[in-house]
Design brief:
The structure is a single chain. With 180 residues, the chain is an alpha+beta fold. The protein is built from five helices and eight strands; from the N terminus they run E-E-H-H-H-E-E-E-H-E-H-E-E.
């Protein structure tokens, strides 16, 4: 089994994309207190769980070989998160998801991080495909995928349950050759 581990961090024009670490404690606590939604799945719902999550929980996906949760840092501040998950090493596929702090949206960070991570995956692994799924109603996320060069492949009707019921999900794919 292989694991994703960007070392050194992935550098883009404005971002440092790196694993979360204990130095992020104050920022993550403030994000949770403000109820800003952009942290990876499994992030604590209460500030008291932040230290444990940053020490262990956020790294479980990487330790299992199934993916990695990474922080998007701009000017020394965590402004978002991007994750690889549902990785099938034998098939050469992985899925990507991302979120940006509400105060930092609209600045192109998600597209920049998505391109940086995609290039890193194709340069450092044998992955042949990165998949991205987005809620059909989330036009901002759909634009990010398209700007990053992901190809819209179809819509899965009522594929996921959201807070308000079933969601239609757009599936995008990016192949190694798409970035050439």
């Amino acid at each position: 089994m292989t694991a994703f581990a960007p070392d050194p961090p992935i550098l883009t024009g404005r971002l440092v994309i790196r694993p979360f670490h204990p130095g992020d404690t104050a920022r993550v606590r403030s994000v949770i207190k403000a109820r800003a939604r952009f942290l990876p799945p499994g992030a604590p719902g209460h500030p008291s769980g932040v230290s444990q999550w940053l020490s262990h929980g956020v790294h479980e996906l990487r330790r299992s070989g199934q993916g990695v949760h990474l922080a998007m840092e701009a000017e020394g501040l965590v402004v978002g998160a991007i994750s690889l998950f549902r990785t099938l090493w034998g098939a050469g596929t992985t899925e990507v998801g991302y979120g940006v702090h509400p105060l930092h949206r609209g600045r192109g960070y998600a597209t920049e991080a998505l391109l940086g991570v995609a290039r890193w995956v194709f340069e450092t692994t044998e992955m042949r495909r990165i998949e991205l799924r987005a809620d059909l109603a989330n036009t901002a996320s759909l634009r990010v995928a398209e700007k990053a060069g992901f190809v819209r492949e179809g819509v899965l009707r009522a594929a996921e349950l959201g807070e308000d019921g079933p969601l239609d999900i757009v599936v995008f794919g990016l192949l190694r050759k798409d970035l050439s």
